[in-house]
Write a structure and sequence with these properties.
By secondary structure, this protein is mainly alpha-helical. It has one domain. 81% of the residues lie in helices and 0% in strands. It is elongated and about 45 Å long.
Length: 64
Amino acid sequence: MGGKISSENISAAFSHSFFDTDVELLHSDVTTLTLFLNFFTYNFIDSGWFCFVLHLQKIQFSTH
């Protein structure tokens, strides 16, 4: 599982960094999380997966 990102890995990493950190380091964790979410969202939309998912949703709605 080379560089594959799973929700388990992400939640484990963030719960580790949030619960094992000192309060004064929490701000940098929030900044990192924000940057990560911005990066992920941008790449998700930019990669065309967003359009693909919307297309699948349209197919689902039209078949019901």
